[in-house]
Design a protein that fits this description.
This protein is α+β, with helices and mostly antiparallel strands. It has 3 helices and 8 strands, in the order E-E-H-E-E-H-H-E-E-E-E. The strands form 2 sheets. It has a 5-stranded antiparallel β-sheet, with helices on one face.
């Protein structure tokens, strides 16, 4: 088993492909088959697996979630860190903060059009910590 903490650089609000960054940081080639568990250690960002080719998909994800859980809604009370505070937590809970992915022939066993997204739900979320556990 191999466990590492990755620090993802700060990104603007939105959905960002991080597949290449994860693959480059891990010794996947040493593992013919196994599992990779990813755990984002934050409550205002998320991980999800989806379309990795057309960037309009990521923009549509942002538009949908920002409309579903809008900043500054009058009924939200948890706004200590700004209008995007509780909306970011809700989006994180809806999408989740972990993924379990197969490793096959020393690579992530993703579908042709699949990529790992970091969902940054804050205007100024900062660097994000990602705990990776490679098993096999």
């Amino acid at each position: 088993m191999n466990q590492r903490m990755l620090t993802l650089s700060p990104r603007p609000r939105g959905f960002h492909l991080i597949t290449d960054e994860i693959e480059a940081a891990l010794p996947l080639a040493q593992l013919p088959s196994g599992l990779l568990h990813l755990q984002l250690q934050h409550t205002s960002a998320s991980l999800t697996l989806n379309e990795n080719c057309d960037p309009t998909v990521r923009g549509d994800f942002s538009a949908f979630f920002d409309r579903l859980v809008p900043d500054g809604s009058a009924y939200f009370r948890h706004d200590y860190e700004g209008d995007d505070d509780i909306p970011a937590h809700i989006k994180s809970s809806l999408l989740g903060t972990s993924l379990l992915l197969p490793v096959r022939q020393g690579r992530l066993g993703l579908g042709q059009w699949q990529g790992i997204y970091l969902g940054e739900h804050r205007d100024h979320g900062g660097a994000r910590r990602l705990l990776t556990t490679l098993m096999g």
